[in-house]
Write a structure and sequence with these properties.
InterPro entries: Peptidase_M48 (IPR001915). By secondary structure, the chain is mainly α. It has nine helices and no strands. Bound molecules: zinc ion.
């Protein structure tokens, strides 16, 4: 086995262990049981094709949700996300191309390298998404009144599968309803009074 393969496989093992630890922590702190997607999340490569946990999927609208979506459009969040995805694709092509040409990585090594870049990039992407979600919540809450916003998020909290903040950063593009409620209470307190 080449030195590069040792590095790549060691990184995969570390990733696997960290993901298992995160699942254990999640079970202990939040819901007391594993959910049916745990297996897909902990397996490297498999988790690349597994979609992020969604939010607002079963919501039929309401003043706050509509104002939130409108704020996303006005703040051009969709364009920001697509630009980031485009930038990531370019970064991957350049990095994998360089690894193939200069380090002579074979296809399996390139796949593993892609997976590792993707796993790290997803964390950064989720953080930017979270900032956008908080921003859209803030704008929406100003438009519909804070009480309406808080009630909408409280109703979402009841429907949502409970997650810790750390889990949300790793696997979701939306903060949990609990995180959003906390943020809206803090940021809107002064400006909406
Ligand atoms: Zn949103």
């Amino acid at each position: 086995m080449s030195f590069a393969e040792w590095i790549l496989i060691s990184a995969l093992v570390v990733e696997f262990v960290l993901r298992v630890l995160l699942e254990v922590r999640e079970v202990r702190r939040m819901n007391g049981k594993l959910d049916r997607f745990t297996f897909f999340r902990i397996l490297p490569i498999v988790n690349d094709v597994f979609p992020a946990e969604a939010n607002f999927t079963s919501d039929h609208g309401g003043a706050f949700v509509n104002a939130h979506e409108k704020a996303h459009a006005e703040l051009h969040h969709g364009i920001v996300r697509r630009s980031l995805q485009g930038g990531f694709a370019l970064l991957c092509v350049l990095t994998l191309g360089a690894a193939g040409v200069y380090l002579r990585f074979n296809l399996v090594e390139l796949l593993l390298l892609f997976h590792l870049i993707f796993a790290v990039a997803k964390l950064g992407f989720h953080m930017i998404c979270f900032a956008e979600e908080y921003e859209a919540d803030f704008v929406a809450a100003k438009r519909v009144q804070r009480g309406v916003a808080i009630r909408a998020l409280e109703s979402l909290l009841l429907k949502e599968f409970p997650r810790t903040s750390l889990f949300a950063y790793v696997y979701r593009t939306h903060p949990t309803a609990q995180m959003r409620l906390g943020r809206i209470s803090r940021t809107c307190k002064k400006s909406l009074r």
